[in-house]
Amino acid sequence: MPKTTKAIIAIGAAVLISVLGFYLRYKNHTLVPLPGESTDEYSNSWVGLSLIQIGLPVGRSGLLGYGGSDPRYVNVDRIYSSTAGGGPLGINRPWLDHPPGLPLLTGGFAYLSGARVFEDATARVIRKPMLLIGTVTIALVGILTYQLAGTGAAFLAMGLYATSPLMTVTSRMIQGENGVIVAFLTSLIFLNSYLTKKKNIFLWLAALAAGGALLFKVSGIAVAISGAVILLSQENKKTALRLWETALFLTVALSFLALFFVYGAAFDWSTFVIIWQSNSTRPYDIGFGSLFDLLTTTKITVSKRLTEGWPLAGWISIFLLMAREKKRLFFFVALPVLVYLVIFLLMGGSAYGWYRLPFMPFLFIAIAVMLVDGFRTENKILPVLLILMPLGMTIHKLSEAQRLAAIIPLWRYGLPAVIGWFLFGKKARLNRFLYITLILAALAANVWLNLSLTSEFYLKIN
Amino acid sequence: MSKEARVFLPQILWYSAIWLVVASALFLILRYRRSRLYSKEKYEALIVTISEKRQKATDPCQFFIAGDPPNAEGNFAKAIFYCDKEHKAVNTLDLSVLATGNYRELIREVGRINGFSSAEIVEGNQWKCFDDHERVLNFSDKIKLKSRVECFFNFSDGEIKTLYAQNN
Q: Where among A351, A376, A401 does a domain terminate?
């Protein structure tokens, strides 16, 4: 097949996966997560809307540094009849908890859509930009995986990321981490291009993207640190060159953090400093079991879970990748996870599910790499287990919405049969066929669970 | 100066100069916009104005404020509306949101939150309101903490008494 035809088919397939991902994110996006489940979603948009409307960031905050707040009932989406609880929202001005990147994006979109007061910023309006961000993230996952592991892994990573119910639900949320993900992936893609093509423009683009992460949340500093470590770890360059590249990269990236300081100073420097201190001395809510919890639970908020097997399969895949010789995969997949893990544990002031989002693209890339490698190797038992674990969990969740009692015997006897087959079966072609069937079944189960995720079902499952 | 420094140092210096210009402009623009746009009235309007797109309530019983305010520390009141024998709405309000802590403000704020007009309840004569079984005659009276304000639409005194007797 000619190269151009291959490229056209590949791009077409990538577009199709992205469209599927968009559709799954779009369906029920106004209902799941429940509007008001996290009032931060509204607050983030109000900050942008108020910046545009009255020139001052206004939002809700739980930080003590403000020394009190203005308690108000803002009954957007009628959250007081459903999810918000009976308490008013503690409004603060100027709101300086986080950089204004996401507020300007969603609040700006709300303003362009006709929103003029806080109550106008409904989930239907403010979640729309997140659908676009979520879809762009799918494409970026594909591009980075393509650069690191080729076309097959790229399609699989895109497919899994596009259809994972946990990702479809959390990517709808107006949380800064969803913006950090986009900047993280973009920065790594340009950095990889810089290392392979040696063009200065890619270093600049990588640095600007790393800086972009800091417009969404300060924890986006993980992007700058990851990039700096990658640049410093190049083996085939002189030390002076590596140091200068890193200096340029960090100057550009961290200048965006400095912009946040300028932003804070423009409104109220003393409040900004107190809030900065307040943010860095938050109680360590993630607790002693934070690492175990991170690996074994998949959260939406503090208490609401959407249990899914893919992240655990991802963590296992990351650990397996770390044991490998392939340095590019380590630096562009495992290292970002480790750097963000350090930031997550240091800044771990809260057990909210969205703090974990920046791990996710890398976990899915790691799974895809392991599964594609598994396809090529003779012994497939390990990747088969990596598929069966999330597949089983997805079917388990589905069984809470659909009548699946009929397939219980199939699962009971099928699961040991599949494991046994891959332990002892030596027919390579048949093994490959079964292997692909399992992956397709896992993807189909993901899609099915997504389509079943109405607000009623979402309330039921955990 | 090393070859690397000759390549990268000018880039860093140029970028820093541009950053300084951008940061100064950002600072000045933010300050200018705040001084031009911000006022307490606009802030209030932004927060309390009811969205035109939000569905208006057909009566005070259509919507409610669920749950007790967790941080009110006793500074709350319940506002319960009986629209007919079958329909009622229970609301709990943190009193710290009220500029003036009286019955009129309580009902007005619950009305604003839930999207109904409080004028009919406060000014009309089809509604009768009680605070802990005592008739509210003056809506400008200060509201007591943890009050249970109950308003009845087209209920006779006898029907209200019966209802209280049933509830007790």
A: A376
Rounded to two decimals, the pTM is 0.95
Question: Which A residues, 121 through 140, put their C-beta within 8 Å of a C-beta on chain B?
Answer: 122
Q: Which residues of A372-390 are buried (b: 16+ CB within 10 A; e: fewer)?
A: bbbbeeeebeebbebbbbb
Q: CA-to-CA distance for A173 and A177, rounded, in angstroms?
A: 9
Chain segment B95-115, per-residue pLDDT in tens: 999 999 999 999 999 999 999
Q: Measured between alpha carbons, how far is residue A112 from residues A108, A116, A290, A442, B51 in Å?
A: 6, 9, 41, 40, 16
Do A8 and A104 lie in one domain? The reply is no
- Whether A122 and A138 map to the same domain: the answer is no
> Residue B70 and residue A241: Cβ atoms within 8 Å?
no
Measure CB to CB from residue A118 to each of B4, B27, B46 and give the nearest one. Answer: B46
Q: How far is B165 from chain A (nearest CA, A)?
A: 28
Do A56 and A200 fall within a single domain? no
**A326-348: average pLDDT:** 93
Split into its structural domains, chain A has a count of 2
DSSP string of A279-294? HHT---TT-TTHHHHH
* Structural element, H or E, at residue A195: helix A176-197
Spell out which residues of chain B touch residue A248, defining contact as CB-CB under 8 Å: 8, 11-12, 15
Residues A89 and A136 reside in one and the same domain: no
Residues spanned by the domain of A192? 3-28+130-376
Chain A residues touching residue B56 (CB < 8 angstroms): none
Best mutation target among B6, B31, B46 (most A Cβ atoms within 10 Å) is B46
